[in-house]
Each structure stands twice: as structure tokens, then as C-alpha cells.
Amino acid sequence: MIYAVYIISKSGSLLYHKCNLNNTPNTLASLDSNDHLVMASNLHSIHAIASKLARTSQAPPNASIPSSLPGNRSGLKRVRTDLFDIILHQTVTGLKIVLVVSKNNQDNLGHGPNVSIDTANNYNYNTIDTDDYAPQIKKIYSLYSDYVLKNPFYLLDMPIRIPMFDTSIDSIW
User: Fold this and answer.
1) Cα–Cα 20 to 30 A to 78, which of 46, 49, 107, 159?
2) Integer Cα distance of 169 and 143 in angstroms
3) Which residues contact 128 (CB under 8 A, 6 or more apart)?
4) How many domains, in total, are found in the chain?
């Protein structure tokens, strides 16, 4: 289940965020707009650092497994906690789509570290992949392309304030 959606620009500014208020944990629902800005900038910074540290010339261990989403060949892919996961996908143009999702039922809660970070180079391709959320990410990117980029009044890298886009995002919950 998706708790929240963030769209972060290539330069790291928060363009859009929306929480699923019907099924969001109280802690996420109680965040104010400044907290969302801090979260987006931290994710952008960590992704940039992970991209620089990752060995992009080397293919992932299971390179034969095709990814259904282009982009995000290096850097941060997923942050796992005991309560939720953060899925991050960077498009070819540098736009980042971030999903805060419910904890997977197949994970063992309470065993191992409280937080783990997966980058493109150390990602365990035998576990449930971020590609499980590929349909939702594709839909968000499609809605972004249709309602935001094709809007003649929208300026790139400005916050997204388009009611039709906001309403359409509700279809992914």
C-alpha cells in the first residue's frame, strides 16, 4: 500500500507531495510542509552521494534480470525500516519519483537492523524488487507527463499546483 508520493526535481527541490490520508500512519500524516521539504532534500542528497560512490562501470550481480523501468542505474533505490519502505526511482531526465509504502509482509519485522539502504550495486535481486511498484511509478510519470509537462502555464522546476494532476494521483491509492 502506498502511503505517500513525492516528486523531486533534478536539482533536488520538492515539486509535489501527497499523502494518502485514509491509510497513512499518524506520524506521516502529522508532518508539516517543512518536514516534507527536509525529507525530499535528504533523499536527493543521499541519492547523489550513493550515485558518486557506486561503481557505475560494473554491472549489477544479476544483470540478466531486466528492469521494467529505465533510469536509476546507480544510486539509492530503497530504504527499508521496520514500519515502511521508501522506494526511489530516478527517470532518465533526472526527475525522482519517491513512494513511501507499507512494510512488505514477507519481511521479518524485528530481525536484523532497523534501517537498511539498498543502492543499485548492492541490491539483492532475489528479494521483492522495487519493480513491484513499477506500474504505479509508470502511472505517476504518465500523469506527470500528461497533466504537468503538457500544461502551457507550468514552468519547469516550480511546485506542481495543477488540480487535475492532484485529482489523478488519487487513482494510484
Assistant:
1) 159
2) 8
3) 104, 106
4) 1
- Looking at residue 150, its pLDDT comes to 96
DSSP state of 121: T
Instruction: Give the Cα separation of 82 and 49 in Å (integer).
Output: 24
Supply the range of the domain harboring residue 137.
Answer: 2-55+68-105+126-170
CA distances from 8 to 64, 72, 80, 89, 112 (A): 30, 14, 20, 10, 30
The total of other beta-carbon atoms located within 10 Å of residue 125's CB is: 13
Per-residue pLDDT tens over the stretch 86-95:
999 999 899 9
Asked whether the predicted pLDDT for residue 30 surpasses 70, the reply is yes
> Model confidence at 127, in pLDDT bands (50, 70, 90)?
very low
Q: Across-strand partners of 26?
A: none
Q: What is the value of pTM for the model shown?
A: 0.78
Residue type (1 letter), 23? N
CATH of the domain at 26: 3.30.450.70
Q: How many residues does the chain have?
A: 173
pLDDT of residue 103: 80
Element (H or E) spanning 126, and its range? none
Answer for the pair 132, 116: CB distance below 8 angstroms, yes or no.
Answer: no
Are 103 and 93 contacting, i.e. CB atoms less than 8 angstroms apart?
A: no
* Residue 171 vs residue 124, higher pLDDT: 171
